[in-house]
Design goal:
Low-confidence stretches: 8-36
Radius of gyration: 21 Å
Shape: globular
Mean pLDDT: 82
Strand content: 25-35%
Number of helices: 9
Strand order of the largest sheet: 3-4-5-8-7-6
């Protein structure tokens, strides 16, 4: 993931304790009102950068993030600005502070079982009579990051496939699906046209086995700039995130993925009280 830079070359919203040299020149000037419209506050920009590092798994769960001093040096920000950004992400549940040790990427929250069957959104849309369009945004083969290798039970740095798709209904993006896929279990996945064939069908065809098991976890998240742009919603919008690990009938994992739902979507399930 390419490093993003803060917008400091032009007008921006100064932090009250900012010491990088631009804040004082703007305080109390006629340019300040224009600055407020031109770029987000610096702590907001830093918050978005850190959030995307977590969402993209560049910073893995339980990993220690750079110290306040390191972030101050990297982005030329005052301590108060960095602390404000970190505090916002702690409040969102993405980071956790540990006294005397530092700040870490938080573990996922509580898990709630919803269905015992794998969740195919293509099938769900077909069942509702919804015509949809799939746009492939990203698709590449890469050595497996450590957490991906663990989830897919493949050797570290073995080739895996990353696939990002956005599904549209009536011209409106309704979900963004990001999948890490095992080429060890499903050779040939990188040769599929995913605009015309569902990932589930492609996996079963390439693996020669049926998909049977799914482990799901739901969480509320702030969209952030990248997913806000993909889903045509505000980057500050609260959205539903589904993390899902899909396995074949022989319990071999084939996909570890996340689905980001545009605001207004919902998950519906039936439940039966045990006797």
């Amino acid at each position: 993931m390419a490093n993003r830079q803060l917008s400091v070359s032009g007008p921006f919203v100064p932090e009250e304790d900012d010491t990088i040299g631009f804040g004082e020149a703007l305080k109390g000037s006629a340019l300040q009102s224009h600055a407020e419209k031109a770029a987000p506050a610096l702590y907001t920009q830093l918050t978005d950068i850190i959030r995307e590092k977590i969402y993209s798994r560049e910073w893995a769960v339980k990993s220690k993030i750079p110290s306040e001093h390191e972030l101050m040096a990297q982005y030329r920000l005052a301590r108060g600005t960095v602390r404000r950004a970190i505090s916002a992400l702690v409040d969102e549940g993405l980071l956790v502070r540990e006294h005397g040790r530092g700040t870490f990427v938080a573990e996922p929250g509580l898990s709630h079982a919803v269905e015992s069957r794998p969740f195919s959104f293509a099938e769900a849309l077909h069942n509702q009579g919804k015509a949809f369009k799939t746009v492939v945004v990203d698709e590449w083969v890469t050595p497996a990051p450590s957490d991906v290798a663990i989830e897919l039970d493949v050797p570290p740095h073995s080739d895996v496939m990353f696939l990002r798709r956005v599904r549209y209904v009536d011209g409106v993006p309704i979900m963004c699906q990001e999948s890490w896929l095992s080429l060890q279990e499903c050779p040939g996945l990188c040769d599929i046209d995913y605009r015309n064939e569902s990932l589930f069908d492609a996996v079963e065809r390439c693996a020669g086995r049926k998909i049977k098991y799914s482990k799901m976890r739901y969480a509320a998240r702030i969209a952030g700039k990248e997913h806000g742009d993909l889903l045509a919603c505000e980057e500050t919008a609260a959205i539903l995130l589904l993390e899902q690990t899909i396995s074949l009938a022989d319990h071999r994992p084939v996909e570890w993925g996340t689905t980001w739902f545009r605001p207004g979507q919902s998950i519906v399930s039936n439940a039966v009280q045990p006797d």
